Amino acid sequence: MSEQLAAVDTLFLHEDGEDFQVVVQRDGQRMLGGRLEVKQTDAGPRPARLRVQRGSQEDLRSPDQFVELARRAERIRVSEQTSRRGRRVAREMLDAYQLDAKVVRTCRYCASAGEYSPITSETAIEADGEDICPDCAIAELERELAYHGDVTGTARDRLEELLLEVQDLERIKNLLSGELDPELTKFDEISATVEDVDLVPTDSLNLHPGMQQKLESQFDELLPVQSLAVEHGVTEGQDQLVVSATATGKTLIGEMAGIDRVLNGDGKMLFLVPLVALANQKYQDFQEEYGDIVDVSLRVGSSRIRGEGGGFDPSADVIVGTYEGIDHALRVGHNLGHIGTVVIDEVHTLGEGERGHRLDGLISRLKHYCEEGGQTAARDGRGGEVTDPGDTQWIYLSATVGNPGSLAESLGAQLIEFEERPVPIERHVTFADDYEKVDIENKLVRRAFDSKSSKGYRGQTIIFTNSRRRCHEISRRLEYSSAPYHAGLDNSRRGKVESMFADQELAAVVTTAALAAGVDFPASQVIFDSLAMGIEWLTVQEFSQMLGRAGRPDYHDKGTVYLLVEPDGVYHNSQEMTEDEVAFKLLKGEMEPVTNRYDESAAVEETLANVVVGGSATKRLNDRMLGEVPTKHALGKLLEYEFIDGLDPTPMGRAVTRHFLSPDRAFLLLDGIRKGEDPFDIVSAVELADEEL
């Protein structure tokens, strides 16, 4: 036979009852496999018959052919799983032909199937108390994944990667049953980093006595990023873009510069944020901290609905507001007085869809107001004459910017970038179906709250999810004290939640991803119940902003982040990627640059607002925006829509811009009004159109 004449690399024997499975390899490839029957003779065990498998057929070979193959083999191996009796039989049989064999670790699954797969400590995978080869372990895992619902794609790849890493099939299977094995769920750790910065003593600052006294009573030294900002002139009027991680002290930079200018009679301070909840929180903080030396007022978007007198005082020294609230004040022509400092928190919002182009437009309109004498006749908040209405300081704050250098240049600001992370953050990934997620969240919340940091604080959790309804659902099902927190709650309820969390009366808050920007909960742990915001997947920037809420240097030794990922999961049929694919894209991805590209609707909307505020200066307002606005085309559309007459807004144009309507929404409303439709039906149509968009 040809097998007898060929060189043989390995002949392998694996005990099978009274006989042996035989595998013959040549050049590392299986040449033949079969079953060797052994007979007992007076001289000892001898080959009786070799049954060679040929597909479904079986060829019977003489014992001499087995002996010939064994003699031609470079090595003979006997499976470690072979019993003592089997090893003795194999050794005595081979000794009779002066052949040596070595006992080796092999995969029993392969051997039972007539394959030879030697394994080592580096390749062996433990399964049901024995070691098997990686291929068989992966095949077993895939059978388990199919049982759990055909887990495929990135989730399967991650589990297979973990299997080869930890070499324990049962531990990997347990992950699919909600087991929180931290060694397996851990994806990576973002280390704490420290930059060498000379800290500025607070008593060396040359600020107004009111601000100076407050700082000296609280701090001996400024934090590193604050020291860098001071060294580069923030208290001397220098415009700055400050990019630094959450909880590194960015907010105080704006306060320090703005309050000082207020007290020195150099104009009021605007502190602008993207969200009503965040504005309310900052307003309360400013009232408590500075209410004894300055007047503080609040301007949020809803104040335009309440009408004048809704608590907003445009003559106040400090105005805390939402982007939309201040923009609305400009669009309706309020005199905001002499603005000395504008602090724009979460400036990376410039890169976000609808909110991005509105912030871009607001910055341009506010700069126009400050430069072009909109406040010339006004007195500042302390009654003094305005000395230089165009000399406004701009301070932009963010924890997450992918292109800080180019953004600073576009904003005309000096970049202060500080990359220190106060505490390390562990990032974990675990796979769970939607119905399993709350059970896992329960375990994680309990585990965190039952532990204390070296600073004496319990671990508390922020759970981010993608809808208000889901916030309430999760909160109801958590066993430890928790509360939902979202923009649909009134100020009183949100304030109560914030206070209870600060006093460690809550183990967790469950909030929407939309409230990730700057909400100040000192949490040790962040859980992503969903990786979507509404029906849109999170960006790397949004994800980084949210996970940055985990771990505070004055409270915690480290931050912990858990992504609860549904394999193959989507939240809307328009989503091309699945949640497991998105998870690793976010974990491995680079921060997106802050850019703004306008479609026609956004360009027309911002141009109309610029016409209302800037009139003949509309082109200059458009040109200074980050996004490229085709002014001529946008003005043509506004004339076509009868929103402007020349460079003057029509009554219809004023109404559209005061309500922040895109042209599409405006015409949808107009069509319903002209047809005499019920107001509720009109609003429903607008909401439905928004959902479809």
Description:
- There is one protein chain.
- With 693 residues, the chain is an alpha/beta fold.
- It contains 27 helices and 27 strands.
- The strands form 6 sheets. The protein has a 7-stranded mixed beta sheet with strand order 5-4-3-2-1-6-7. It has a 7-stranded mixed beta sheet with strand order 10-18-25-22-19-21-20, with helices on both faces. Strands 13-14-12-15-16-11-17 form a 7-stranded parallel beta sheet, with helices on both faces.
- β23 (532-533) and β24 (536-537) form a beta hairpin.
- α22 (600-614) crosses α24, α22 packs across α25 and α26 runs antiparallel to α27 (679-692).
- The longest helix is centred in the middle third of the chain and has 19 residues, at 353-371.
- The radius of gyration is 35 Å and the shape is elongated.
